[in-house]
Amino acid sequence: xxxxxxxxxxxxxxxxxxxxxxxxxxxxxxxxxxxxxxxxxxxxxxxxxxxxxxxxxxxxxxxxxxxxxxxxxxxxxxxxxxxxxxxxxxxxxxxxxxxxxxxxxxxxxxxxxxxxxxxxxxxxxxxxxxxxxxxxxxxxxxxxxxxxxxxxxxxxxxxxxxxxxxxxxxxxxxxxxxx
Length: 179
Known about the structure:
Blueprint: H1 2-10, H2 26-38, H3 42-56, H4 62-76, H5 80-93, H6 98-110, H7 114-127, H8 132-144, H9 148-161
Helix pairs in contact: 1-4, 2-3, 4-5, 4-6, 5-6, 6-7, 6-8, 7-8, 8-9
Pfam families: TPR_19 (PF14559)
Protein name: Tetratricopeptide repeat protein
InterPro entries: TPR-like_helical_dom_sf, TPR_rpt, Ycf3
């Protein structure tokens, strides 16, 4: 079964194939983020936030899940070519699934191709405006592009959702000083 599914993933997707809608995880995400904001330690918040990642990485169907998993595994192995191939296919197949864009942006961020990462982050946020990782990734990408003022605005949006983000240390006062 797994070999047949893998062959399906490697084969071009038929032109008529439609990706089903991504699972609606909004309520569960909100509940977890409420708990994250109420956390009293960074470790507690980090453990809770892992639940949000589990929600985001629930792909719409099995072929999409295989592409996402393959892309993330390749990224984790620093095989950025294979990661981009899988994630390109995922975003083509499931253009309404925010995590495909977020993961492709992350690969490009790791490659320091900030110009390529930014549109994918914007696509992810257009689909899921409260995607904390896409918000923090956008802030880091804007910093990489030298757009510090814009980055600070986006970082503040992310920190409203999760005040425990490691990127909180990059936040500056309104006058530009580090907090």
